[in-house]
Design goal:
Layout lengths: L7 H11 L2 E8 L2 E8 L4 H5 L6 E4 L4 E5 L10 H19 L9 H16 L4
Parallel strand pairs: 2-4
Antiparallel strand pairs: 1-2, 3-4
Helix pairs in contact: 3-4
The chain binds zinc ion.
Length: 124
Protein backbone atom coordinates (compact mmCIF):
# COMPACT_ATOMS: atom_id res chain seq x y z
CA UNK A 1 0.00 0.00 0.00
CA UNK A 2 1.33 3.42 -0.96
CA UNK A 3 2.08 5.87 1.78
CA UNK A 4 0.11 9.06 1.73
CA UNK A 5 1.54 12.37 2.70
CA UNK A 6 -0.10 13.78 5.81
CA UNK A 7 -1.14 17.39 5.91
CA UNK A 8 0.57 19.78 8.31
CA UNK A 9 -2.66 20.17 10.27
CA UNK A 10 -3.10 16.44 10.70
CA UNK A 11 0.44 16.12 11.99
CA UNK A 12 -0.12 18.89 14.48
CA UNK A 13 -3.33 17.27 15.71
CA UNK A 14 -1.62 13.90 16.00
CA UNK A 15 0.96 15.53 18.22
CA UNK A 16 -1.69 17.13 20.43
CA UNK A 17 -3.45 13.82 20.83
CA UNK A 18 -0.24 12.24 22.12
CA UNK A 19 -0.16 14.67 25.03
CA UNK A 20 -0.76 13.25 28.46
CA UNK A 21 -3.26 15.23 30.42
CA UNK A 22 -6.79 16.14 31.31
CA UNK A 23 -9.23 16.10 28.39
CA UNK A 24 -12.48 18.00 28.29
CA UNK A 25 -15.01 18.32 25.49
CA UNK A 26 -17.16 21.37 24.94
CA UNK A 27 -19.59 22.78 22.41
CA UNK A 28 -19.52 26.11 20.56
CA UNK A 29 -22.59 26.80 18.43
CA UNK A 30 -23.00 23.09 17.74
CA UNK A 31 -19.30 22.38 17.07
CA UNK A 32 -17.72 19.78 19.36
CA UNK A 33 -14.22 20.69 20.57
CA UNK A 34 -11.68 18.92 22.74
CA UNK A 35 -9.49 20.78 25.24
CA UNK A 36 -6.40 18.93 26.42
CA UNK A 37 -4.48 20.42 29.34
CA UNK A 38 -1.10 18.75 29.07
CA UNK A 39 1.21 17.66 31.84
CA UNK A 40 4.10 17.90 29.45
CA UNK A 41 4.92 18.82 25.90
CA UNK A 42 7.02 16.70 23.60
CA UNK A 43 10.59 17.50 22.58
CA UNK A 44 9.26 18.11 19.09
CA UNK A 45 6.83 20.73 20.37
CA UNK A 46 9.55 22.47 22.36
CA UNK A 47 11.40 23.05 19.08
CA UNK A 48 8.29 24.35 17.32
CA UNK A 49 8.64 28.11 17.12
CA UNK A 50 4.87 28.44 16.73
CA UNK A 51 4.13 26.48 19.90
CA UNK A 52 4.02 28.87 22.79
CA UNK A 53 1.94 27.27 25.51
CA UNK A 54 -1.13 26.45 23.47
CA UNK A 55 -2.25 25.15 20.10
CA UNK A 56 -5.66 25.38 18.46
CA UNK A 57 -6.23 22.96 15.61
CA UNK A 58 -9.38 24.35 13.99
CA UNK A 59 -9.71 21.64 11.37
CA UNK A 60 -9.83 18.85 13.97
CA UNK A 61 -11.31 21.04 16.72
CA UNK A 62 -8.63 20.24 19.25
CA UNK A 63 -6.96 22.62 21.70
CA UNK A 64 -3.78 21.70 23.57
CA UNK A 65 -2.48 23.80 26.48
CA UNK A 66 0.74 22.99 28.31
CA UNK A 67 1.27 23.40 32.05
CA UNK A 68 5.05 23.43 31.60
CA UNK A 69 7.36 25.81 29.77
CA UNK A 70 9.76 24.77 27.02
CA UNK A 71 12.41 23.86 29.61
CA UNK A 72 9.93 21.55 31.37
CA UNK A 73 9.34 23.78 34.39
CA UNK A 74 5.86 24.42 35.81
CA UNK A 75 4.12 27.52 34.48
CA UNK A 76 2.36 29.91 36.88
CA UNK A 77 -1.35 29.03 37.15
CA UNK A 78 -2.41 32.47 35.89
CA UNK A 79 -0.42 31.95 32.69
CA UNK A 80 -2.02 28.52 32.18
CA UNK A 81 -5.50 30.00 32.67
CA UNK A 82 -4.75 32.86 30.25
CA UNK A 83 -3.43 30.31 27.71
CA UNK A 84 -6.67 28.33 28.01
CA UNK A 85 -8.72 31.51 27.51
CA UNK A 86 -6.50 32.51 24.55
CA UNK A 87 -7.03 29.17 22.80
CA UNK A 88 -10.76 29.16 23.61
CA UNK A 89 -11.06 32.58 21.93
CA UNK A 90 -9.31 31.10 18.87
CA UNK A 91 -11.85 28.27 18.85
CA UNK A 92 -14.75 30.74 19.14
CA UNK A 93 -13.41 32.85 16.26
CA UNK A 94 -12.86 29.77 14.09
CA UNK A 95 -16.40 28.58 14.70
CA UNK A 96 -18.34 31.69 13.74
CA UNK A 97 -18.42 34.53 11.27
CA UNK A 98 -15.27 36.18 12.67
CA UNK A 99 -12.87 33.53 11.32
CA UNK A 100 -10.92 36.26 9.47
CA UNK A 101 -9.91 37.81 12.81
CA UNK A 102 -8.55 34.50 14.12
CA UNK A 103 -4.96 35.30 13.13
CA UNK A 104 -4.96 38.62 14.99
CA UNK A 105 -2.79 37.36 17.86
CA UNK A 106 -2.57 40.68 19.75
CA UNK A 107 -6.36 40.97 19.75
CA UNK A 108 -6.82 37.35 20.89
CA UNK A 109 -4.28 37.84 23.69
CA UNK A 110 -5.86 41.18 24.71
CA UNK A 111 -9.31 39.55 24.94
CA UNK A 112 -7.90 36.60 26.91
CA UNK A 113 -6.19 38.87 29.45
CA UNK A 114 -9.29 41.08 29.67
CA UNK A 115 -11.55 38.08 30.34
CA UNK A 116 -9.05 36.74 32.89
CA UNK A 117 -9.15 40.07 34.74
CA UNK A 118 -12.97 40.08 34.77
CA UNK A 119 -13.08 36.47 36.00
CA UNK A 120 -10.61 37.27 38.82
CA UNK A 121 -12.75 40.26 39.84
CA UNK A 122 -15.78 37.98 40.06
CA UNK A 123 -17.63 39.87 37.33
CA UNK A 124 -18.06 36.73 35.26
ZN1 LIG B 1 -2.90 32.54 19.48
Amino acid sequence: MARTKKSKTANKSDRILKFQGKQTTFDIFGSKWKLIVCDAITEEDRKDEYFDYGITDGENRVIGVSVKNKKGNDLPSNEIEISILHELIHSILRTGQYINTNNDEPMVEFLARSLYSLIKQGII
